Predict the structure.
Amino acid sequence: MDAKYGEYMAKKNSKQHKIMSYIVLPLIIGSMILIAVYQVQEVMDYVIPDLTPTPMATQESEYYGPEIKDEDIIEEWEDPTQTPTPVSN
Amino acid sequence: MFSKGKWEKVVTAIALATIILAWIVGYLSNKDEMPSCRSVIPKAESCEKVNGDIYEGIIRHEDGTETVLGWAAVAQAPGYAGPVKVFVGINPAGEVLGLRLLSHTETPVYVERIKEEDFFQEFMGHSVKSPFQLGEDIEGITRATLTSRAITGAVRGASRKIAGTQLGLHLEQERKKVKFGVPELTIIGLYIVGYFGHRRTFKHKKIARWGSMLVGMGVLGFLYNLPFTLSHFNSLLLGYFPNWRENMYWFILVGGIFFVVTVDNKNPYCQWFCPFGATQECLGAIGGANAWNPGRKLRDFLKWSQRLLAWSAIVLGLLFRNPSLASYEVFGTLFAFQGEGVQWVVLIIVILLSLFVRRPWCNYLCPIKPIIDVIRAVRRWTRNTVNIWRKRILNSIKL
C-alpha cells in the first residue's frame, strides 16, 4: 500500500514538476531577456538622451531660473561703474 | 581540457579583469565638460574665470564699460549613489539667479520626481546667507529625500563659495548632524538577530528568521525603501561614498554585508532580512511555493545567465561611472511604486512565480547573489592559496 502510494506520489510530483518547468522556465528566461533589453535601453538613453521622450536625468542641461528680459538687467544695474552691493553680514 | 571547477575559475578571473578594465576606461574617459556661465546667468554676454573655479558673467555696453551680472560656481555633494554636481549662478545682491544640474548618478526616477515637483524653483531668489537646509528653508521631495538633500548641499556649497570670495561674506560652515533613526536602529538590530540566528545552537531559528524578514520587509522595504542594491556595490567600487553623518545607514548596510561575508563567510542579509526576499517568501507561504529543480544543466545555464546580467550591470556602471545606470532591480518598483514599463512587467512575473516557486528573483535574477558568490569564491581561493604557501614555506624551513 505504502509503496503504491509512494509510486503514485512520485509520478504525480514528476508530472507537476514537468508542468512547472514548462511555465517557470519561459517566464524566467523571458524576465532575463527583458532585463537585458532594459539595460540596453538605459545605456542608450544615457549616451543619446534625445532618443526617448523622457531622457534619463543624468548629464542635465536644463536651466532652472526665472525668465529674464533685457530690460530687467539694464535697469537693475544701470550704472556700468557700479560695483556689486555687498550683502551685509 | 579544463575541469568544471577550472572553467569557473577562468571565467571568474576574466570577469574580474574586465571589471577592472571597465573601471580604468571609465575613469580615463569620463571628464566633465564645463558649461558656459551664461547657462546660469542669463543675458551675460561673456564669462571670465575670476577666482579659482568661479566665473563672472558680464555684459558690455556700447561705451566700453561693463556690468557684472553675477557669478557662477560648480559644487558637488554626495548623493545616495554618487556625487551630485550643480552649477549655480548668484547675482551681485547675493541671490540665487539660476541653477543647472550638471551631472548625477542617482536613480533616474528620483530625479524625474524632483523635476516634476519643481524642486529647483525653490532655490530661486534665496540669499547666499540662507541655511539651505531641508526642512528649514528648503522643502524636500517625499520619496526622493536623499537626492533632494544632495542637490541642496551642492547649491549651498556653490553659494558659500561665491559668498566668501566675491561678496566678502564669511559664513560659518554648517555642521551636519549625525542622522541616526529608525532605519539605522533597525538594520543594526537585524544584523544582531541574523548573527545569532545563524548559529546552529540557536533554538528559535524559525521564529527569529520570520521575525527579521517581516521587520525587513516592513521597515526597510515598504516604509523606507532602503534595500541593498547593485548601485551600492558599484558606488563602493567607484569610491562614491555618501556623507557618513547623513547616510550612516548606507555604511552600516554595505559595510555589514561585506564584513560578515568576508570574515564569517555568512550572508545574513539575503536569507534573513532582505525586504524583497521576505516579500517572495510571504507570497510563497500563501501559494505553497516549493523549491524548483530544473536539473543540473539547466541550473548551470540559469546561474551563468544571472551572473552575466550582474556582470554587465557592473561593467556598464563602471564604464560610465554611474552606479545605477544598468541596475535592474525591481525593489523600488514594489516598495515605492516607481519604475519603468519593463520593471513593472518583471515585477509582476516575479510576484506570480513567487506563489509557486521559492524565491525566484533571488535564485535566478538578483544581481546580489553572483556578487556574494564571487566574494566567497575569492575568499576561498585566497585561503587555499595562503594555506598552500604556508605549508610550502614550513616544509622548506624543516628541510
In short: Chain B is about 55% helix and 10% strand. Residues 60 and 66 of chain B are 4 Å apart (CA to CA).
